[in-house]
Task: inverse folding
């Protein structure tokens, strides 16, 4: 028995609409997956920005340097260094080698206001920092305030710092200036035990 004309038309419309509906759903799924990936990437990068200060405060210079890409560049008040080994050596030269079982009771980095833009396997970030030391009365003393400007790269499936430039805001220090002023008084002594 033949199908009524309107049933045949409905069946034809559904048959034609199905690929379009499936394509639209697939496109929506792809867009959602991309958005989720960007959120996950931002979270991983934010964790690196925070770990940076934590490693520095703990004097875990190897962990700190490991946040950088194999050709990552750090530029700031101590000069510039390229690659994890050179970055670790720069820290040890300027801040001294970490003591076994070191517990930091004299300084603290606070990193805030991270803004992170992800573009595939590359990202840019900017953040602000405060560096505190202790006073003779064992109170916090804000010694430095500044900002970081970073480029990140996904290296072997993990985010790493490609470049980090530290700009001192108080006192003013331009991280890009090849003739940087000397390290602020008290900074080198503030991070010693």
Result:
């Amino acid at each position: 028995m033949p199908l009524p004309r309107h049933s045949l038309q409905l069946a034809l419309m559904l048959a034609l609409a199905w690929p379009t509906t499936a394509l639209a759903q697939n496109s929506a799924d792809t867009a959602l997956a991309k958005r989720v990936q960007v959120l996950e990437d931002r979270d991983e990068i934010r964790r690196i920005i925070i770990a940076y200060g934590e490693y520095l405060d703990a004097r875990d210079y190897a962990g700190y340097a490991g946040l950088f890409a194999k050709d990552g560049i750090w530029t700031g008040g101590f000069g510039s260094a390229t690659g994890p080994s050179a970055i670790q050596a720069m820290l040890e030269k300027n801040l001294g080698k970490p003591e076994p079982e070191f517990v930091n009771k004299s300084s603290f980095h606070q990193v805030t206001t991270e803004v992170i833009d992800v573009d595939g396997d590359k990202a840019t970030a900017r953040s602000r920092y405060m560096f505190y030391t202790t006073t003779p009365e064992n109170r916090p003393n804000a010694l430095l305030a500044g900002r970081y400007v970073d480029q990140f790269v996904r290296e072997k499936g993990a985010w790493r710092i490609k470049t980090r430039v530290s700009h001192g805001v108080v006192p003013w220090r331009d991280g890009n200036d090849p003739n940087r002023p000397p390290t602020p008084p008290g900074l080198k002594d503030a991070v010693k035990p």
Q: What stands out?
A: The first helix runs from residue 5 to 57. The radius of gyration is 26 Å.
